[in-house]
What does this fold into?
Amino acid sequence: MTSLRAMVARCAMLGLLTGVGLGAPALAQPQPPPNREVTVQNETDLFLQELYLAPPNAADRGPDRLGNDTVAPGATYRARLGRTRDCVFNVTAVFQGGTEEQRPRVDVCRAPRLVFGDPALPTLDAAVANASQVALRELYARPAGEAADRQPERQAERPWGPDRLGAGTIQPNGRFALRLRARECRFDLRAVYDDDREEVKRGLDLCQARAVAFDRSGIPRPPTRRLVLANRHLAAVQQAYLSASTDADWGPDRLGAAILEQGGEATVEMQGECEADLRIVFPSGAAEERRAVNICDEPRIVLRPGWVVAARLDPGDDPGPDLPAPSGVSPNSLRLRNAGQLPVVEIYTGRRGGDRGEDRLGADTLPIGATIDIEPTEPEACAADLVAVFRDGREVLREGVDLCTGAEIEVR
It folds into this structure.
């Protein structure tokens, strides 16, 4: 029979083998990491757009804890960090306009609230109105600097900071609630319109005036340029367009309801720098253009045949180089004179009733008032139908002309 002492010894040995001693407590199960979060309080006057919290030994700053959200000025946000045993993080906050604030080794277990900005700063609210007919694309605000205001050359060096509109705009007759956190009251505001024109209002007391209107009245006006046009063409000028070479379109007709008659002069105006483009239109619809004219150096332009490529744009009242006086017409040719109001760009002399043939001018043109002697393409092909094509596409047909008569005819 087994003694009681032997049974006790066996139980003790079994307890050692199984890890459970008599009266020993069971081992505790490991607890999961806590689910951490921080409260973000934005006491700045800018939107908080991104927030990063990464352990100090991390290779990068990790994901944006805001995701697709932003934190408006004066608002709070709960940022979830997930299950982690970490308490210390490097914090990076990215505000509207790309401004960053970094805080190394923040213990979010001891201080689970991240406050950006100074809650003690007064809040200034101003209603910014767009009283113009052009959308307002950007809006900037900065404290007014008295020293810089007395020195205009230093104003351009002062930073404006971020665009307060962000991705938004202020449409015509629209409004925007501008919120600023500052102890001072005086601010400079800068508006940028959709056409890239800028308007700046300086030294506004936003503690007294809580409404600001931009109406483009403060946009610096470019200088007014005047140009005299002298018409020495053989036709009236119905329209004249003058615009800065940097403009995207021609703008309005500078003659308005007037007509620049042959031999007359007119003064046209534009606002801008010296380099300009000029376009004139005749009653027939034909047009002539010249680009990049320095109208400060050339305040008078004589419109005459060839002026678009002339080296000198103001030859006084000289209509241009005199055309050579016609000599006697060969008895085996026909002299054609351009008596029209535009250059002739094509001439055809095909057989009577047949194909018009090849262009007798080729790459040349027949200027206004000029002549050309045309011989038959074949010795006995004197009878022809003559077609003259003007630069505006208008065609003039002379049927049954004699290319061997030695005479002169006109087309107009």
User: Anything to note?
Assistant: The chain is about 5% helix and 40% strand. Confidence is low (pLDDT under 50) at residues 319-327. The domain at 334-411 is CATH 2.60.40.2890 (Immunoglobulin-like).
